[in-house]
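agent> Task received from the user: take the single chain below, predict its 3D structure, and emit structure tokens. No templates, no multimer pairing.
agent> Plan: (1) validate residues, (2) run structure prediction, (3) serialize to tokens, (4) report one or two observations.
agent> Step 1 OK, no nonstandard residues flagged.
tool_call: predict_structure(input=
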Amino acid sequence: MARGSLILCSKYKFRFFLALLIITVLFWTNNQFNPQPMLVPQDPISQQIPEDLESIDLKSNYSKMVYITRMISNDLPPIHFADQTYLNTKTILENEELPSNFRRYWLLYCFANKTTEQRLVRLIESKKEKYHIVPLSSSSEASDVIKETLNNDRARNIGLKKSLEEGAKWTLNLDGAQIMTQEGIHSLDKALKRAEGNSQIFHFVPLIRLLFRIEFSESLNYRQLFPYVSGLEECTVAVHQRFLFERPKILFLHKHKGLLYDEDREYGYKEKLQFLQEAKEHLSAKQISCSEAMIGFTKKKAKSADFDQDLLTLCGYSVRLPYHPEEDAPYNQTTAVVKRFYPRQQSVAAFKQLLTKIAASNAAQQTQ
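)
tool_result: status=success, residues=368
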């Protein structure tokens, strides 16, 4: 009797394990050929990401291009020469030679002077380059017009979005006074390919400033530029298209509504620097290439080019053109850098008065 029970028990055990094996095989087969989407916990803050960024179809736009996207906007005398943006754009178009996997893209941002804007459009079109115009606000509220116009971070976010729409794999946001030498571009190209291989999202690019008004050429290398430049300044950032998918995981960007830059910061209030500081503090080496290029403010100039050469060769670099490129400007502009704060405040105050008048004009037209 006991033996019969044992045999019966063994049969049931065999059937049980056979059924378990069949279920396991069926489950594995179903998931192999009908994979289920991975469920990612949804953070309510990350759902505030603007739809226009979410709608970018990278599959149809995918390319291997690196976009150098420049934000150009209003000259603010006396901190800027009255025609500085035009002269800088002309210098860049005539002296910056890009390899075949690079493209220039121009963002003309909120120009108050339409004549200046149209001159720049004609200049850019003469070189058959792409651009996008962000028009000045038509709001009748002065605060709205001022907030949109004096908002470099909004311009940077728009520039990144437009580049991604064009199919950029990497986007390097520069302002209208930054130019790249052949040496800088060659090093940057290698650095971005290395970062791509490491699946990194951001690449920090060192920046130096010309303190003397010299005849610029793209063939100049850092050793030749060294006598005429500042120490390293706050870097610029190249962004991989993978950023679109990684944003919800980057927690400090939730404060920016998922955007790269915080659009609540006005011009002159550490707008780009805030992102750089947060990125260096919260992101890992797996996400940032060349994090050592992060400089808070202008670094004391090295004693020789040798001190900086390894970093610039590793990461690439850009050069900021002099504050005053006009022909009758002083050759040595070092003092202009040191004494820049108060002229900037004066320039911004004067421009705000102009924008207030424009808002009043908008209000008058809307009531007619």
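agent> Step 4: summary for the user.
Residues 46-346 form a domain with the Spore Coat Polysaccharide Biosynthesis Protein SpsA; Chain A fold (CATH 3.90.550).
agent> Done.
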